[in-house]
Design brief:
single chain, 4-stranded antiparallel sheet, about 30% strand
């Protein structure tokens, strides 16, 4: 995990460290977690996000914006630990144009 964080800018690394600490202090694990992403409306990009949660029992909902330029992807899934939550954010961050909310 630490090796992945080293490649990030300092602000992003600090965000993930803070998120992990907050999750440790506010939830019991394993726990349900709701991920929310915005991606350009492109079937391939949406599929990449969905595939990152494949075989995890995730409930995935998508909604296009009014002008259909973007799609929101909400994913409710049981995660094992705060580290696994952060790891999944890092995994999907490589998808071009994705915004994590």
């Amino acid at each position: 995990m630490r090796l992945i964080l080293i490649a990030m800018d300092k602000k992003t690394e600090e965000f993930y460290i803070r998120l992990k600490e907050e999750l440790k202090n506010t939830s019991e694990w394993p726990s349900n977690y709701l991920y929310k992403f915005i991606v350009p409306t492109d079937a391939k990009k949406i599929e990449e996000v969905e595939n990152a949660f494949d075989n995890m029992g995730a409930v995935i909902q998508t909604q296009q914006s009014k002008n259909a330029k973007y799609t929101s992807v909400s994913i409710n899934v049981t995660m094992e630990s705060p580290e696994s939550v952060v790891s999944k954010y890092i995994e999907v961050s490589g998808i071009e144009g994705i915004i994590s909310l």
